[in-house]
Amino acid sequence: MVAEFADGRAEIAGGYQYKDLDHPISFGAPGFVADNLGSSIQVKSHDFFALARVDFTGDVLAQKNRRSLGVTPSYGFLHDDRYTNPRGSAARGVLKNKFEDTAVNVGAFVENDHYVTKRVAVTAGVRADWNRREHEIPFAAASFSTPVTDARAKDYFGVSPRLGARYEFDEQRQTVFTNLSRSFEAPTFGEFNTSRAAWNPSLDAQTATTAELGYRGERAFVGWDATVYQSWVNDELISLETQAGGGAVTRNADDTIHRGLELGLTLNLLGTAVTDAPGAPRTQKLLFRQVAGWNDFRFHRDAEFGNNRIAGLPEGTYRAELTYEHPNGLYFGPNMEIASTSWVDHSNTLAADAYVIFGFKAGYRPAGKGWSVFGEVRNLTDERYAATTDAVRLAPANAASFLPGNGAAVTAGVECRW
């Protein structure tokens, strides 16, 4: 909900998400049957989130100024029951464990964006975050595990300042910008719980200092966006494998460095503007959009991994699409996606292969109607590839570390806005 007033606007938003998971699992070699082999996982989660924000606009010291402040609270509760899975059936067996997780997050921010001159603006802001994680084991059956009931909680608090500046070439819609900011990220329950019955209270929040420099704009039939950045990360939450069973376990790394380059280029092959002027009627376009990224995420003098690359992320990515847009809202065209090799393990001994996939999308967005329809065919050639991989300490021989991407698939939908 948005309310406009003379010198600004106020916004209030909220949401709720419910998830109900019924997941029988069986373990053991083919043909092996045991009465209590495996588990039947029953998970129900409730997540609430909200946003309250106020923006004030108006001149300060005879120059444009915008002040913003707001809060972003959220609350989540997860109830996880584990039953036996007799003989690998879908029916629930005997209750083995109960787990309950609660997460509370409250963020508050304030920001000021001030034009020092007509074209030079400076932004300064700060965000404070408080996070609480609660983990409880209200029931553990003695016949299946050590009967331990437990309740633990941990609080995190962080302050993240930000300072930025930009120069605007207003007659050509071009901007050069730079930012220096801090970030703060508390562990999730997936990172806390190395197994459902385990809790790692030693995990610290991940923090980082990031510097970025960019240039974006549009002129005639060309639009572009280029950003280079580097982050100095402290206590990065790194996923490893356990000593037995292959389950995920998370620890705080020593210092790590994230650096990269993001490039975007859009050409209107019909020779007219890439975007229509505000309030102007739509024009016919044939847009060739390209987005490329280079990622160099590394450990920095780590006691175990030295300066190795962090697993799980391709070094390079590229996506391109050629889209025809008609003034009546019809659009269609092919696309392609390329990803380079990516390491499976932090020891950098095994990597997933690079891949290329092709697709085609089409849709209809009538002007001023508040609704649209769309459809897309992905992986037209039914390519077999690893979309993601595990991120482990050292890739074991013959391990199932590659998570396959979808084969040829069709998606369609309707979007409504009001």
The CATH homologous superfamily is termed TonB-dependent receptor, beta-barrel domain
Structural class: mainly beta
User: Unreliable stretches, pLDDT < 50, 5 or more residues?
Assistant: 29-36
* Outline type: globular
N-end to C-end Cα span: 10 Å
Could you say what the CATH architecture is? Beta Barrel
Largest sheet, strands/sense/barrel: 17 strands, antiparallel
According to DSSP, the number of beta strands is: 23
CATH class: Mainly Beta
Rounded to an integer in angstroms, the radius of gyration calculated over CA atoms is 26 Å
Task: Indicate how many domains the architecture comprises.
Answer: 1
Task: Provide a descriptive summary of the structure in words.
It is a single chain. This protein is mostly beta strands. It has a single domain, classed as TonB-dependent receptor, beta-barrel domain (Maltoporin, Chain A, Beta Barrel), CATH 2.40.170. The protein is built from 1 helix and 23 strands. It has one helix spanning 189-192, and strands at 2-5, 8-25, 39-60, 63-84, 95-115, 120-140, 150-169, 174-185, 206-219, 222-234, 237-241, 248-252, 256-268, 285-299, 316-325, 330-339, 342-343, 351-352, 355-364, 371-378, 386-389, 402-404, 409-416. The chain has a 17-stranded antiparallel β-sheet, with no helix packed on it. Strands 11-12 form a two-stranded antiparallel ribbon. Strands 17-18 form a two-stranded antiparallel sheet. Strand 19 and strand 20 (371-378) form a beta hairpin. It starts with a strand and ends with a strand. Residues 29-36 have low confidence and may be disordered.
